[in-house]
Amino acid sequence: MKKLSCMLTACLLLRMTLSAQQAPPPGFLTDSSDTRPLHEVVVKAYEQNRKLIDVGAPVAVVTKASLDRFGNASILSAINLTPGVRMEERSPGSYRLNIRGSSIRSPFGVRDVKIYYNEIPLTDPGGNTYLNELGFYNVQSLEVIKGTAGSLYGAGIGGAVLIGSMPAVWDKGLTVDYTGGSYANNQTNMNLRLGDGDHRTILSYDHQTSDGYRQQTQMRRDIGSWETMLKPSDKQTIHAYILYSDLYYQTPGALTEAEYNSNPKQARPPVGASPGAVQAKAAIFQKNFTAGFSNTWHFSDHWQNTTAVYGAYTDFTNPGIRVYEYRQEPHFGGRTVVQYTTELGPSTLQVNAGAEAQKGFFETRDYANKSGTPGALQTDDKLNNWTYMAFGQADLKLPHGWTVTGGASFNANAVDITAITATPPTTSKVRFTNKVAPRIALLKKILPDFSIYASASRGFSTPTVQELQKSNGIVGPPLQPENGIDYELGGRASFFGGRLFIDIDGFVFHINNAIVQRIDTSGVAYSVNAGGTNQHGIETFVSWRVIDRPQGFCNNLRIFVSHAWHDFHYSSFTQDTITYSGHRLPSVPPQTFICGMDISLKMGLYANGTYTYTDRIALNDANTFYAGSYNLLDGRIGFRKVLARWKGDIYAGVDNAANVKYSLGDDFNAALNRFYNAAPVKNFYAGVSLNYAFR
After folding, report:
1. Cβ neighbours of residue 109 under 8 Å, at least 6 residues apart?
2. HSE on the CB side for 692, CA within 13 Å?
3. Half-sphere exposure of 166 (CA within 13 A, CB side)
4. Would you give the distance in Å from CA 372 to the centre of its chain?
5. Do 75 and 138 touch, CB atoms closer than 8 A?
6. Cross-strand pairs, 327
C-alpha cells in the first residue's frame, strides 16, 4: 500500500521549488547545486557570508536545483517562485524583472534593480541591465535582495540580484544538453569542465532558437564563455571569465484589448500612417562582450579584501515602429571590499568598507525606419556617464543571539548628453545631488533555527540614461531621483531537523518622486515623476519535506507555498488637471499565490508540478484598464540515473497545461491603450542531459 500511495502521489503531484535539498540516494543523478537545507545555505548578501537564518534582511535564494526543475529555456519560472518577484517575458529573449513593482519603469529590459554577476556590476553605468545576455546555463545560483539595498549596492529601490556562475560542487567532465519543444524551440548546450577543485576551468557554448507563440517573435541566441577559478594558496582565490552573447529577437508590439481578444497571436497591426511590427521589421540585434577579474585575499585571520574589475561592450540595434536605433555602449568599472573581523570579548565585530565606480562612453543614433532599414538621420548623441559610491557597514554579533547591523553608502552620478546633430552641437549636463543611503537592522536568534529581524533603510534611484531621453533621442522633461524609507519586519524558522522551513516578511515603503513611463500617440516613450506612493506588503514562503528516506521506494516528497500580498497605491500624484491619488500602482498584482510539489522514487523517476494564481493588474494610472487574473499549471516528469562515469536525465514537461489565455509583460500607461502582450498557451518540451565524468 505504501508503494501504491507513493505512485498515486506522483501522478497527482504539483511541483515545488526553492525548497531545502538533501543528499541524494546512490545512483540518483544530482546537479552540482548546494545540497544543504535552505536555512543552512550560506548567502553573500550584504557581504555577510552567513547562513540564511542569520541574515536580517528580505533575501531569497534560487539554487541550481530550483532552476533545474523547469524547462531550460530561461530562468523565469524558478525566479517567479520567490514571493514579491515577478520576471516577465514579453517575447522570447525580451525580459523584465519586477521586484516589488520596479517594472513600472521598464518598458523593456531591467531598471531600478542592481544586478551583479560574479562580483561585478552587470548593470551598466547608465542604469540599464541586459539580463538577456545570460542564458539558462550561465546561472548556477541567485540571491535576490528585495527592497532598498543602497547601503551596499547603490541606486535601485527595487533591490539587488547577485548571480553566480561557478558550480557550488566541482565535478570535472563534459555535459551535453538538448531541449526541444513547441513553437520550434530548440536549445543545445555543451559544457566542458577541466581541473580540480583548486584549479577550475569551464568552457561553455549555448545555442537557442525559437519561432515564438506570436507573429514576429522569432529568436536566436548564441553564448560562448570561458571561466577559471584558481586557489594559489589557502589565502587567495582568483576568478576570471569572458562572456560573449549574440542575440537576435523580433518584437511584436503590444495590442489593444479588442486586438488581443480578436487574435492574441497577431503582432501590432498598422494604424494609419504608422506601420505595424511586421512592416517595420521590428527586432533587436544585440551583442554583448564582458570580461571580468576578481581576487579575494585573506591577509590574516582578521583582514581580507575582494577586488573585482571588468570591461564590457554592448552593440545594440533596434528597428522599431517609429525609429531605427543604433547604440554602442562601452563601459568599465570595478568594486573593492575590505573586511575586518575581530572578537570583542563574547561578541564578534565584522566591518566592511569599500567603493565601486563605473564609467561609460555611449553613442546613440536614431534614423527613420524605412521598412526595417535606416533612413534619414534624426539624432546623433554622445553620452559620457559615470557613477561611483563609497560604502561601509558594521555587524556586531552580541551574546544571547542578538546581531546589530548598521551601514550606509555615499553615491554620485552624472551624464553629459551631447547632441551632435544640433547646430552648433549642444551638451546637456545632468547632475544629481549626492545621496546617502543608510540602513540599520536588528536580528534576534530565538532558537538555533529560529530568528526574527527588523530593519529601516533609505533608498533612492536616479533616472537611467534612457529615462532622461525620450525614445526619439530628445532630452525629456527634468527628472528627480526616486527616494523613500523602507521598514521591514520578518522572521525565518526551520523545524523537524530542517524538513519544515518558513520565511515571512512584512514591509512598509513610502516613495517620493516615483518615476513612471508613458508612451505618446506617436509611440515616443518618456518618463515623468509621479509624486508619491504607499507600498505595503507581506511575503511568505513555506516548504515542507514530507518524506525524506534516501533508501525508501518513495525517497523524497516536498511541498511548498509562496504567497505575496501587495497593497501599492499612489499617495499623491496629479498630472496636469488629472489626480491619480489613491489609485493602484500599475504593474503589481495585489495577490500572487503559488504552490507545488516534488517527488522522486529510488529507481530514478521524478516529477514536479506547479500551480500559479496571479491577481488582476492595473495597466494605467487611471485604473481604467486591467489585465485579468489567471491560473497556470506546469509540470515536468523525468528519469535520472548514474551508470559508472555516465549520468543521464531524460525529461518532458508542459507549461500552461490548462491552456489559459493571459497577458505577460504588459505595456503600462501606453497610448491608444496598447497594453497587451499575449503569453503562450499550452506548450510542451522534452530533453536529455548527458554527463561524462573525467577521472
Report:
1. 95, 96, 128, 129, 130, 131
2. 4
3. 20
4. 31
5. no
6. 316, 364
Tens digits of residue pLDDT in 308-321: 999 999 999 999 98
CB 70 within 8 A of CB 60: no
What distance in Å separates the CA atoms of residue 247 and residue 637, rounded to the nearest whole number? Answer: 30
Instruction: State whether residue 344 is helix, strand or coil.
Output: strand
Share of the chain above pLDDT 90, in %: 69
- Give Cβ neighbours of residue 282 (< 8 Å, ≥ 6 apart): 216, 250, 251, 252, 253, 267, 268, 319, 320, 321
How far apart are alpha carbons 253 and 260 in whole angstroms? 11
**322 φ/ψ angles, rounded to the nearest 5 degrees:** -110, -40
Determine the pLDDT at residue 14: 35
User: What distance in Å separates the CA atoms of residue 665 and residue 110, rounded to the nearest whole number?
Assistant: 12
Provide the whole-model pTM: 0.91
DSSP string covering 18-54: S----PPPTT----SS--S-GGG-EE-GGG--EEGGG
pLDDT at 99 over 60: yes
How far out from the chain centre does Cα 209 lie? 22
Which of 206, 160, 210 minimizes the C-alpha distance to 185? 210
**Cα–Cα distance measured from residue 200 to residue 227, given in angstroms and rounded to the nearest whole number:** 8
Confidence of residue 90 (pLDDT cuts 50, 70, 90): confident
